[in-house]
Amino acid sequence: MRHAHEVGKVREAEQALMAALPEGELMRRAARGLAAVCAPIPPRAYGSRVVLLVGSGDNGGDTLFAGAWLARRGAGVEAILAGSKTHEQGLRALRAAGGRVTADEAVIDAADLVIDGLVGIGGHGGLREPYARLAERTAASAAVVVACDVPSGVDASTGEVEGVAITADVTVTFGTYKPGLFVDPGARYAGVVELIDIGLGPRLPEPDVVAPHSEDIRPPRPSPESDKYRRGVLGLIAGSEQFTGAAVLAAGGAVRGGAGMVRFASVRPAVDLVRQRWPETVTTVLEAGDVADVGSLVGRVQAWVVGPGIGTDERAEALVAAALGSDLPVLVDADGLTVLARRRDLLRRTAPTVLTPHAGELARLIGADREAIEARRLEHVREAAAELSAIVLLKGSTTLVAQTGRPVHVNPTGTPWLATAGTGDVLSGLTGAFLASGMPPLDAATAGAYLHGLAARFAVAPHDRPGEGQAPISAYDVITALPRAFRTLSGDTTWAGPG
Ligand SMILES: NC(=O)C1=CN([C@@H]2O[C@H](COP(=O)(O)OP(=O)(O)OC[C@H]3O[C@@H](n4cnc5c(N)ncnc54)[C@H](O)[C@@H]3O)[C@@H](O)[C@H]2O)[C@@H](O)CC1
Ligand SMILES: [K+]
């Protein structure tokens, strides 16, 4: 996992470390790391035109020291001192190395490399002038942009962006990742993120946010003793007279997600379609009076998925209530979430509940504003997990998974092409398969989001050849690409199953 810490924790750890080190050593480490990332950027240090955007804090100090290092290696370095004051030792070092100070902002236009040292973890709110103007001018230049610690204008702890921010090609961050580099909108401004070890590790507490690597994703794999029941039986309640497609897609996600068996229950037209496409499923036709007894009609399962395409009427409500009335893990998605928005009492249960809303569905569930959720995804997903006593997977650009008392998991895979009808149904079936296997729900949701996003990337660009473009995908293409996504996970890191 890549660990990210909020600003307060970074500062505490830095203070403790600083007290144990010679003065200026931490900044030297940070600046050296920043310069080392910048040096190989074409046309490489010697003879390149480097512009430093220097703010009034230590972020500017790091940038001046890194600029001095590049100047000593032959770069032409010019610093725009934009703050009300300037880090003195840093400025001295730059001048001693042959760097210059300039008031001419036009140097940005012709630069090969711009290093953004306006604000780092000390930033608050939208960029003030002249920083905002400099950020805009930088965006218009053809220079490679490297942000020092965080792109100025991005809130390091939350990823919020108020107004203008630096759009970086690379962000060189120190000691630990910052949540704002992982979570949109901030993540979109960060580019490639490079972490520089400045010795902070041992002094850092539990992370606030984590982003899994491939080896952290451990969906269950069958052992020689496995049979279909031990691998996990998923009960899936999806589809209605009007919406049959959602059922087929959710069933596909579950089948390709490795469920030992999928028991599917719905109205006749949805059952017919699911049987045609996924004859592997065991199906139950629900007649009008059957909904309350769906549990006993379907038979033994280890987890439920309820919601895709079920509609939002009384019948749908009874289906959601029946699933949540069980003492099994339940994933509620799509129409099921709309039902829950008016029946939050159904969430009072002891077994785990996983909710998979997009921002609009979450807005209805917690009575918030959709735009506010998009702007402050981290805050809202945490709030929702606490308020709804559930594991909440907030879909969208940078999918987040929150469980109270645990770091928020941020999904590193995915593609904007996923924003198409039906892909969410695939995700709920896939995650349901993991829940049925007995995987802890936070891990199940994290693995679901990861593999779903990876499969989508494979579907969008199947050959991943340089210069080859991307194509729109259907939800069905994501199902088809799931086996390939699974095969990228190394076999020997498999989650061993429940005890
Ligand atoms: N604390 C440490 O031990 C270390 C800090 N380092 C660097 O120090 C940085 C933090 O330095 P500081 O605490 O001095 O803070 P910053 O340099 O991030 O920013 C503080 C300054 O920016 C101004 N500012 C804040 N928000 C603004 C906005 N929206 N528009 C315009 N101006 C704004 C403040 O008034 C203040 O003058 C880190 O990001 C990192 O780059 C590194 O050198 C590593 C060691
Ligand atoms: K910065």
From TrEMBL:
Catalytic activity of the protein: (6R)-NADHX = (6S)-NADHX; (6R)-NADPHX = (6S)-NADPHX; (6S)-NADPHX + ADP = AMP + phosphate + NADPH + H(+); (6S)-NADHX + ADP = AMP + phosphate + NADH + H(+)
Binding site for (6S)-NADPHX: 58-62, 120-126, 131, 149, 246, 309, 358, 425
Region described as Disordered: 207-228
Note describing how the cofactor binds: Binds 1 potassium ion per subunit.
Lineage top rank: taxon: Bacteria
EC number(s) stated in the UniProt entry for this protein: 4.2.1.136, 5.1.99.6
Keywords attached to this entry: ATP-binding, Isomerase, Lyase, Metal-binding, Multifunctional enzyme, NAD, NADP, Nucleotide-binding, Potassium
Cofactor dependency: K(+); Mg(2+)
Feature: compositional bias, Basic and acidic residues: 213-228
Limits of the YjeF N-terminal domain: 10-206
Sequence positions that bind K(+): N59, D116, S152
Domain YjeF C-terminal: 211-489
Chain sites annotated for binding AMP: K395, G396, S397, T398, T399, G424
Cross-referenced PROSITE patterns: YJEF_C_3, YJEF_N
Protein family per UniProt: In the N-terminal section; belongs to the NnrE/AIBP family. Belongs to the NnrE/AIBP family.
Function recorded in the entry: Catalyzes the dehydration of the S-form of NAD(P)HX at the expense of ADP, which is converted to AMP. Together with NAD(P)HX epimerase, which catalyzes the epimerization of the S- and R-forms, the enzyme allows the repair of both epimers of NAD(P)HX, a damaged form of NAD(P)H that is a result of enzymatic or heat-dependent hydration.
Subunit structure: Homotetramer.
Name of the molecule in the record: Bifunctional NAD(P)H-hydrate repair enzyme
